[in-house]
Design the sequence.
């Protein structure tokens, strides 16, 4: 009788401990999910900024087509920007995949075992750090790219005005 009672106490303690662990992990996941949602908003803004910059880049390159340029470094700058923009597109797609994975995990998270929950939380934490780093880099690079495009655009305007004044 005493052994049965002891076994019941151990089983109840184990079940209570497991439920507490799951609750703690669920709370951690909820916190990470809020952070993921916040980063998704930043990502959406960055994606929009990237799209606008790409449109500006395309417009300038089309305007320059066939022109005799006063400053040949503009072409080099635009070629560099093209490479950077393609890299940004790849980073944006990678971040979207991670954020979509977080959304998919949300529906199934309560059905996971404690070990699976912990593993998913660890992966999500790593993902969120990578996303933050990527977004910081993209933001800084986009500011630099926008300044370069503004300088080229201003130079093209001056060149056009000078050419019109000579005619």
Sequence:
């Amino acid at each position: 009788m005493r052994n049965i009672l002891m076994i019941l106490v151990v089983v109840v303690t184990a079940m209570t401990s497991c439920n507490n662990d799951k609750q703690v992990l669920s709370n951690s996941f909820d916190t990470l999910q809020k952070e993921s949602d916040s980063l998704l908003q930043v990502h959406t803004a960055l994606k929009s900024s990237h799209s606008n910059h790409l449109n500006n880049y395309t417009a300038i390159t089309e305007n320059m087509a066939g022109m005799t340029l006063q400053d040949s470094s503009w072409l080099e700058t635009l070629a560099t920007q093209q490479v950077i923009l393609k890299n940004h597109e790849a980073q944006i797609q990678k971040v979207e995949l991670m954020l979509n994975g977080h959304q998919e995990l949300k529906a199934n998270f309560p059905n996971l075992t404690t070990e699976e929950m912990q593993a998913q939380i660890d992966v999500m934490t790593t993902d969120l750090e990578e996303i933050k780093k990527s977004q910081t880099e993209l933001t800084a690079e986009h500011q630099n790219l926008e300044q370069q495009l503004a300088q080229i655009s201003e130079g093209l305007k001056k060149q056009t005005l000078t050419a019109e004044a000579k005619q």
User: Anything to note?
Assistant: The radius of gyration is 27 Å.
